[in-house]
């Protein structure tokens, strides 16, 4: 008999349980059905197949010859399906897909991923970087680190760090003008990406709200990490997030001439779909990264 789209597949599940336990009552308890519902599903299957599958006796059922032929094959089929689902679940649970920007990944997150994997050896990490904000309904991913207000429909968000910024440059470039002592000194040097919206915000915070950079040569590098590399090479002054470049400062490749920090209100957040909030790998990564932030109180909101 060829199975049609209208074949009562749920009745097969009921039959498999009843045949395995030789009891309509126990099948109902296992599947959360009444005995009447179990009897209905078995009768529906028998009518569909044109074969009697059980002999009904008072307080006892036994398989007919047709039932005996069908039962082991159906049990095998459900076992195969269960294995397939378990295999998919194990693969999904074993890989954590993280989306973030190239700058955040290379300058901050990469410092800690090794520790996360040492603590959770059963979870592989796949890091995807992009300047675009991903849509979890269209792009495969488990968590993302993005900047913004922290409010996105359908997503659970956890605050990570303030997104503040300040000018940074190489000490050699600063020496070409005798040092950078005041915010006005920045204007004596080449500015990397003068069209960046962070510049007017920072100059306003530094007491220079009327600075106009529109006449400056345009230069766009596409990612903050590239702008930082250009600054290290002495090609100009970049406006950067200082927490990302502590190593460069320690090694003397960059300096932060002012303590003045500005923000555009777009802070960094860990986000993931609400529907995935109970997945073990997501909970483990969330707890791990939030503990790191708790250990770095200087990055918590003031």
TrEMBL record:
Coiled coil: none annotated. The keyword Nuclease does not apply. Keywords: DNA-binding, Transcription, Transcription regulation. Pfam families: HTH_1, LysR_substrate. Residues 7-64 form the HTH lysR-type domain. Belongs to the LysR transcriptional regulatory family. This is LysR substrate-binding domain-containing protein. It comes from Neorhizobium turbinariae.
């Amino acid at each position: 008999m060829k199975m049609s789209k209208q074949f009562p597949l749920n009745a097969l599940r009921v039959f498999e349980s009843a045949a395995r336990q030789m009891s309509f009552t126990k099948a109902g308890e296992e599947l959360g059905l009444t005995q009447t519902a179990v009897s209905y599903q078995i009768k529906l299957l028998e009518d569909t197949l044109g074969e009697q599958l059980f002999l009904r006796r008072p307080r006892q059922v036994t398989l007919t010859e047709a039932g005996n032929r069908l039962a082991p094959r159906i049990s095998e089929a459900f076992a195969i399906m269960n294995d397939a689902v378990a295999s998919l679940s194990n693969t999904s649970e074993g890989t954590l897909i993280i989306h973030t920007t190239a700058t955040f990944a290379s300058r901050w997150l990469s410092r800690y991923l090794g520790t996360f994997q040492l603590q959770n050896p059963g979870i592989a990490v796949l890091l995807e970087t992009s300047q675009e904000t991903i849509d979890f309904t269209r792009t495969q991913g488990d968590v993302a680190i993005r900047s913004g207000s922290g409010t996105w429909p359908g997503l659970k968000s956890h605050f990570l760090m303030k997104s503040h910024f300040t000018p940074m440059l190489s000490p050699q470039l600063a020496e070409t003008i005798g040092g950078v002592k005041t915010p006005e000194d920045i204007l004596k040097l080449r500015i990397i990406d003068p069209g960046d919206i962070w510049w007017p915000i920072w100059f306003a915070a530094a007491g220079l709200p009327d600075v106009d950079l529109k006449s400056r040569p345009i230069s766009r590098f596409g990612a903050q990490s590239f702008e930082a590399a250009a600054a290290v090479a002495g090609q100009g002054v970049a406006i950067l997030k200082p927490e990302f470049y502590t190593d460069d400062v320690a090694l003397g490749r960059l300096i932060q001439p002012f303590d003045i920090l500005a923000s555009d209100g777009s802070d960094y957040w860990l986000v993931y779909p609400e529907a995935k909030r109970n997945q073990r790998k997501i909970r483990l990564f969330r707890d791990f990264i939030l503990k790191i932030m708790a250990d770095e109180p200087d990055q918590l909101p003031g």
